[in-house]
Every structure is written in structure tokens, then in C-alpha cells.
Amino acid sequence: MNLTQPTTLDDGPRIAIVSGASRGIGRAIAERLAADGLAVVVNYAGQAEGAAQTVAAISARGGRALAVQADVGNAGDVERLFACTQSHFGRVDVVVNSAGIMPIAPIADDSLDAFDRVIATNLRGTFLMMAAAARHLGNGGRFIALSSSVLAKNFPGYGPYIASKAGVEGLVRVFANELRGRNITVNAIAPGPVATELFLSGKSEGQIAQIVGQAPLERLGQPDDIAAAVSFLAGADGAWVNAQVLRVNGGFA
Ligand code: NDP
What we know:
By secondary structure, this protein is of the alpha/beta class. The chain is 43% helix and 17% strand. The chain is built from 8 helices and 7 strands, in the order E-H-E-H-E-H-E-H-E-H-E-H-H-H-E. It has helices at 24-35, 48-60, 75-89, 112-136, 159-178, 197-200, 205-212, 223-234; strands spanning 15-19, 39-44, 65-69, 92-97, 137-146, 185-191, 245-248. It has a 7-stranded parallel beta sheet with strand order 3-2-1-4-5-6-7, sandwiched between helices. NADPH dihydro-nicotinamide-adenine-dinucleotide phosphate binds next to helix 1, strand 2, helix 4 and helix 6. NADPH dihydro-nicotinamide-adenine-dinucleotide phosphate is lined by residues 19-26, 43-47, 50, 71-73, 98-102, 121, 125, 146, 148, 191, 193-194, 196-199.
């Protein structure tokens, strides 16, 4: 144990895996980390075209990126995602698990399918990404999970989603403790409403305005707002932030 030295990042180009980076917040995170100088593995589930666009945007600015399909809820897929990263880039420094779904479903008998799907992607996916990260992250590594500020709202219909993200926040604190001694930080970012398909789809303009108006800053979050916070946690200035849930939401509390 070193009681006096600040944590430092390993030398050399750093490598990030960003899950769910074919669109939305994950894409903004991938592009931001690439702008910060990291090579990025752009994970996606089904939208190969979206992932290719993320890779193209990074390459156009001189960055390095690789698209890899994998379902974060599938153990074999997650192992392949990390193995591809190692074989292509040789190391893993930052893992951001942004892949997520948000089916709205009241707690009732016919909601079990939605519950199982959201737990499989959001919670089991986070668990599997953490397990692989524990095996692959090196000194100075960073794991960043995505939770949600909607946890505090208890909106009807959000039961399965809130259950999954409450689980994610629990895993973050335990995982940080389990990585003791390895100079790896584990945190979550909990966005408020952000202008992506996940938030916008199925809502009327009135519903969106009503939700957005709850933040004192009175605007809808943008994917880049979240990517900026990830950049901080993944970079040198975030080194002393560990086992935290950072609520990035314009005051939507
Ligand atoms: P989007 O719906 O815009 O994008 C979701 C992304 O996740 C896509 O790239 C999708 O891939 C990927 N994905 C979905 N399921 C899987 C899976 N099983 N394996 C791998 N990738 C998967 O969502 P957002 O960008 O808005 O959300 C990103 C994260 O932020 C989520 O965890 C969400 O819960 C969280 N969040 C979002 C908020 C918001 O208001 N938008 C607020 C709070 C939290 P593909 O397209 O290839 O299928």
C-alpha cells in the first residue's frame, strides 16, 4: 500500500470500451473519449450502421475506433468483446457501460417480460461488464456505469427500469471495494432526461416539456453533457473520485 503517492495513469495510449455506442449517450461518450486521445471500441447490439457512423466520426477527426457487436447481457458476447479489444489494441484502460433499455411497464402480471428484458440488459449487462473489466483492466483503470436520476422520482411505470438502475448503483459500490489495491476507480453517472431515443420515444411534446421543466436549468440534457462528465471521471482529474454516483441532470432531483 502506498499512502502518499497520488494515483497516476499508466503511460501509453489508453483504450476504452464503450457499450451501447451506436447512438445516443454512448455515441457521444465514444466520440468524446476519442477526442481526449483514447482509442475506442464502439460496442452495439443490433444497429451496425449506427456503430459504423460512430467509428467514421472518430476516424474523420484522426482518432482510432473499432466497432464490435455484443449483447451485454450475454456472457459469451461480453468475453468476446473484451477479447477483440485485447487482440486489436492490446489493453483495456476505461470501460463505460452505457448500453441500456427503458421499457415503461406498470407492476402487473403482464409486465414480467419487460422486467426480465430490462434486468437482462441493464443489470445483468452491468454485472457481466464488471466481471470482464475485473479480469482485463490494468493499473489506473476506470469503470463507469450508467444509472439514472429517475430513481429519485418513483414515476408510475418505471418499476422495472428503476429496479435495474438501483441494482447498478449497488454493484458500483461493491465493485469499487472488490478492486481495492489495483488503482482502479468505479463510479456511476446518473443522467437526468437526455435528448435520445430512449427518453423521447413514445412521449408527447407536453409530457416532455413537463418532465424537462422539473430541472431548475429548464432544458433537456444533451448527450454531450453526459460525455463531459464521463471524460472527467475517465481522465487524470477524476482520479480521486471513487465509488460515487454522480447525478448529472441540471438539478432534476
Ligand atoms: P439509446 O436508446 O439512445 O441507445 C441505447 C444504446 O444501447 C444503443 O447503442 C443500443 O445498441 C445499445 N443497447 C441496447 N441493448 C443492448 C444490449 N443488450 N447490448 C449492447 N448494447 C445494447 O439510449 P441512451 O443513449 O439514452 O441511454 C444510454 C444509457 O443512459 C442507458 O443506460 C440509459 O438507461 C441511461 N440513461 C439515459 C437517460 C436518457 O434520458 N436518455 C437518462 C438516464 C439514464 P443498438 O442500437 O445497436 O441496438
